[in-house]
Design brief:
- It is a single chain.
- The chain has a single domain, classed as Arginase, Chain A (3-Layer(aba) Sandwich), CATH 3.40.800.20.
- The protein has ten helices and ten strands.
- Helix 4 packs across helix 5 and helix 8 runs parallel beside helix 9.
- The protein is an alpha/beta fold.
- Strand 1, helix 1 and strand 2 form a beta-alpha-beta unit.
- The protein has an eight-stranded parallel β-sheet with strand order 2-1-5-10-9-6-7-8, with helices on both faces. A two-stranded antiparallel ribbon has the order 3-4.
Length: 338
């Protein structure tokens, strides 16, 4: 059974009439789930406690977001990130719903989870909003899993077209949480170099796999087959959280990649296969994706794969970037060159 949080309440985060991270994103996604569907259980949104948000964010920052959302007007938290009167409560719902699905997955109440929430989270830093994000939903859930649910190791996989700088920052010195990211590079927010590997106890536990613009399904499949899968086997996480951004789609107005909906389905298939090998539940959390039709189609493909439908067959395409990933990450992980 797949647990899904999908609710019009996440439209309450108002970003203005022309912002790409618009309430319509949730409306389009919700059309996939507003009726009962086989193998899917709808999970009601729930607010995160302030104590849970404090697992990843400073108290002063949380207070500043709450204060900014007390106005009737739209408030710019940075040049890209907007909040409105209902944004603070909606952001608490986004984080809390992600934590709830994580708890349900770890308790075997669901086989996998999908947190279709907004605002997104992976750019949110400990004390700063950034890149459309207020609170780092996936980082909060990872901290909660370790501190309250008895999980020893968490893997975060991020396939958004943008590097999740906030998530990387949260766990850069930790060996309990491995952060794996494929992303367009160079691109916003300017982080995610292959040389960023973590520090201290976390050295080797940040695995950045930057790709130049224009890469297709096969280039992503090669990375997930050859880099992610053996790392999952070696790391043996008790939980996999996925920052599921769909802005690497060929039709996305912000990204510069050429991934198809089938490509996202194939990526999900590889994540699910790796998770089964180590008996880890998987929870997907919405990040980017700004072409509404492409977003809906891609999510439908991923959900179908997680429900057990056939994974699209896509030939892996290697190149010099994959060679650089092997050279860098094999220092820490037993990678086998294809």
């Amino acid at each position: 059974m797949i647990g899904v949080v999908s609710d019009p309440v996440f439209m309450n985060h108002d970003t203005g009439g022309y912002h790409p991270e618009s309430p319509l994103r949730v409306q389009y996604i919700h059309t996939l789930f507003y009726e009962d569907a086989p193998g899917v259980v709808r999970v009601d949104p729930v607010k995160a406690s302030i104590d849970d948000v404090l697992l990843n964010h400073d108290r002063g920052y949380i207070r500043s977001v709450a204060d900014s959302c007390s106005s009737d007007d739209l408030v710019n938290l940075d040049m890209d990130t907007v909040c409105s009167e209902d944004s603070f409560d909606t952001a608490l719902l986004a984080a809390g719903s992600t934590v709830k699905l994580t708890e349900m997955a770890l308790n075997s109440e669901i086989d996998a989870g999908f947190s279709f929430v907004r605002p997104p989270g992976h750019h949110a830093c400990r004390n700063a909003a950034m890149g459309f994000c207020l609170f780092n939903n996936i980082a909060i859930a990872a901290h909660k899993a370790i501190q309250s649910y008895g999980v020893r190791k968490v893997l975060i996989v991020d396939f958004d077209v943008h590097h999740g700088n906030g998530t990387q920052e949260s766990f850069y010195s930790s060996s309990d949480v491995l952060y794996f990211s494929t992303h367009q590079h160079p691109f916003y927010p300017g982080t995610g170099s292959i040389a960023d590997l973590g520090k201290g106890d976390g050295l080797g536990y940040t695995v950045n796999c930057p790709l130049r613009s224009g890469q297709k399904d096969g280039h992503f499949i090669a990375v997930y087959q050859s880099i992610l899968s053996p790392i999952v086997e070696a790391f043996e996480p008790g939980l996999i959280l996925v920052s599921a951004g769909f802005d690497a789609h060929a039709s996305d107005p912000i990204g510069g990649m050429q991934v198809s909906a089938r490509g996202f389905g194939a990526i999900a298939g590889l994540i699910q296969d790796a998770a089964r090998e180590v008996s880890a539940p998987v929870v997907y959390v919405l990040e980017g994706g700004y072409n509404l039709n492409a977003l809906k189609e891609s999510i439908a493909c991923v959900v179908d794969i997680v429900k057990g439908e056939a994974v699209p067959e896509i030939e892996a395409l290697s190149g010099p970037e994959l060679d650089a990933m092997f050279e860098t990450h094999s220092r820490f992980w037993p990678l086998m060159h294809p």
